[in-house]
Amino acid sequence: MALTFFRGIKTCPLVHYPSAYFARKNGFFYCTMGSTQTQFATQEKQQSGDSKVVPKTYRKSPDKLLKDYEAIIGIETHVQLNTSTKAFCGCPYSYGAQPNTSICPVCMGLPGALPVLNSKVVEYAVKLGLALNCKLSMDSKFDRKQYFYPDLPKGYQISQFDVPIASGGYVDVDLPVEFGGGHRKFGITRVHMEEDAGKLLHTGTGNYSQVDLNRAGVPLLEIVSEPDMRTGIEAAEYAAELQRLVRYLGVSNGNMQEGSLRCDVNISIRPIGQQEFGTKVEIKNLNSFSSVSRAIDFEISRQVQLHSQGQADQIVQETRLWEEGAQKTITMRKKEGLSDYRYFPEPDLPGVTLTEEYLDGIRSSLPELPEIKRRRYENMGLSMQDVLFLANDINVAEFFDATIASAADIKLAANWIMGDIAAYMKNEKLSISEIKLTPLELGELIASIKGGTISGKIGKEILFELMAKGGTVQGLIKEKDLVQIVDRSEIEKMVDKVLADNPEQLKQYRGGKTKLQGYFAGQVMKASKGKANPKLLNQILLEKLNTET
Amino acid sequence: MLSSIQNPRLLRLSTLHQIPLRCLQTSTTPVPTPSSPQPTSQILRIRKSLLSRETTAVEIAKTFLSRLRRTEPQLKSFLYVSPEDGVLKQAEEIDRRIQNNEELGPLAGVLAGVKDNICTSDMPSTAGSKILENYTPPYDATAVKKLRENGAIIVGKTNLDEFGMGSTTEASGYQVTANPWDLSRVPGGSSGGSAAAVSAQQCAVSLGTDTGGSVRQPASFCGVVGLKPTYGRVSRYGLVAYASSLDVIGCLGSSVADTGIVLQAVSGHDKFDATSSKQGIPNFASQFIPKDYLDSKPLKGLRVGVIRETLVDGVDPDVISSLQRSVSHLEDLGCTISEVSFPSFSLGLPAYYILASSESSSNLARYDGVRFGNQVFADELSTLYGDSRAEGFGSEVKLRILMGTYALSAGYYDAYYKRAQQVRTLVQKSFRAALEENDVLISPAAPSVAYKIGEKKNDPLAMYAGDIMTVNVNLAGLPALVLPCGFVEEGSSVLPVGLQMIGAAFDEESLLKIGHIFEQTLQGLLELL
Q: Which residues numbered 264-283 in B keep a CB inside 8 Å of some CB on A?
């Protein structure tokens, strides 16, 4: 294509990320509502923050102040759909591909090119709409949202304005146990379909910028919440639940680092008891759930501090950027009134009409959703900690469900999965679908231990073998001759031999050094290659040690 | 007044190969009386002469090219002409196929002009705008692809008002096209280049686009046949958008049959255009019954509605009398004539200009100097945008972008855009009702014949008012056919008058049938006069 795609745009005066953003200065934590430093149910790691430096201006502990205020938090989330092609053309999209390698006249916005809706986008939107308990619009449409920016090839974004495909829903959330737990219900205002823009690549010298349109036209769902959240943890958990949902539904990889799930937070504070809302501030650049939580807590403190010092007028409607390095929000741009996007119905696309049959088909294809799973696990008698862990990842949950379907003990299955299996996955950086162990064999393993065929210790060894190489529990037991020895006379023989081989130690034991029992037990277990039933072994050993001949 | 001598258009067609265009002649040779003045299909003539081996595709191409070369300096109907060797190579390929008795496409050897706002991968496509100067798209528009698949040879890209915004072709960013009937007059617009090229036989047929009358009005001004298909009949993929909900690719030819054959070739659903229709495509050619097989009342029982609001003050009396004579002709052919009133008719014009401007303000946002087209270097992004657009767009385009941006702005949307949409619904309803009572509706194609170059250039409102006959049809998305129905003498010039026939959605078939019969029997009328 004879197009000068990489033609430079001389200087992009718009978004300038401060270099500090990458410099990762010594960050400080500013913890307010409960510590956000420990891991929460989303299993996300804290990213930085080596030291706690409380900034001077906030030195007077704000904890008391915070009690007098209430934060109002709403979140706009963009979820990038993992459809095989873009929303309005046949180009595939893969994150991290060479710039401008997945583009065509349509997503480049060339003259004469027209969008044609990918029906998968509607299907995924309906799936998420149903999962968020929304009301679906049987007749919705697309609109053009108009603004100029170099990453927006057509000069408008195809989006949905006044008739979103889904609206008026809610999502159920269980807060992490570490933060006191509790169940919350957050309202969903709307879900709508739109297309993503490209990306600007800024050169080191800053003389010009380059445009990569690979991402242009990739389908997005924008989910707007009601302003129902009050703390950073609630907001982070809301976002985590959306991630779980899109992953359960298989509509997105929900990866925040890759930008497949992006959260913009709107936050205001007001003194408790006050009816009207305070001035709303938007926070962007939140790349993880913990940054959602920490950015909100920082922002609440900042606003409360200003408000309590009589400087409420300094809280202005603006977009602030979360700086991960400095662990604070900074002004990105002040809003001068509302932007006029001059929305009007997209004339290139016919309306989107849904039928009851279509909805029924999708409804019946939905998997068991996280909330229902959690309630089911809870009813099985699992602890909330276990419930949250198991239901967090649909693959883990399905593994667990399949394991207990083979009549395995529920608590034992949960423990194996959350313990050794999870540790192995973490060490080897594997997902549960990548390990060789099948739920059926885990059930077999649990049954073999419970039935006494093998010891717990042997079971653990087999488990690692099964995870790394696969195979069956029965096969490994046979192959390695691992069946537990429960024959009394066989153990007696081994005990006799060990006692005979260690006359000196025997003498010491009988002389009162009874601690040596462990030594003997170890020798016998070694002789049995770990297969002796420990209970029986110890019983026989004690008998023999204490019976002087 | 009707020309007292003869129908010059008919003369031109019958004497195509011998006599240069009347208007292009330097001397005023007296016009001989033609013996068989009926408009004939260029496409069928070419096909017949090829299949009978009477001539070759190369010969035909050479004839057209030489006439194009001879007339182009005065007409300026093309923004780009294909290199001769390329055209001849394609013609040779057709001759080879004929030699080998291989199958020929319905448009084999037909030289076609394509309006420059329709994308061609091997020729620049500027849409008549400086902002797209030297821009060659990486793909063919679906209509162009189909033309080629049917054997047509694209001879070049025709001039237009920038992005289709205009009614004279004077708003082209490059050149002003002249009307072949009188070089001091406009060919109409925005498909002025396409209409002039066919009228002067620089090519056999051409593609135009019609957003508010841009195929029909120039057809009327240049005395050729123009067909605006139903919205959705022809894919818009590759048509540089002006107003997406109104834009249609249309066909221009020197006979009704030609426009029907071209329509046949370019019609059909396209997976690249979500607004293209899946309606079945009838065999349009089956409607072209030769004159000799027609009975005395070939249109017996056909209900024709004359739109009252199109024959009022402000419409040229000569145009009205031409139309009235067409009505009597239709009556002679067996039609039942009635008068139809559209109270919303005059509302169509402002509604059209609001909707078209609004959509164009959005469609033209992509010309920002970033990815293609004219780019002015600047230190700041906003300057890059501003300067590239200020330099690249012409004043008419800027005017419409401003109007459209205003109409869509917060606080004005309801008063303008929304209200215009309501008018559009009203217009659609009126047409639906009228077309339940009538098979076709007729009106003049334009309130006047071709006017002088420069005459309305500084009076956009007067120019917009000239679209009164055509814009309602676009608002309703209906098909319409314009064909010559008479001539007016203006000083030393004889200028054609066009008749517009409007049909029900996706009923181009009826329009082509009626148009063909009207055209084939027209001579009797002219002789009477």
A: 271-275
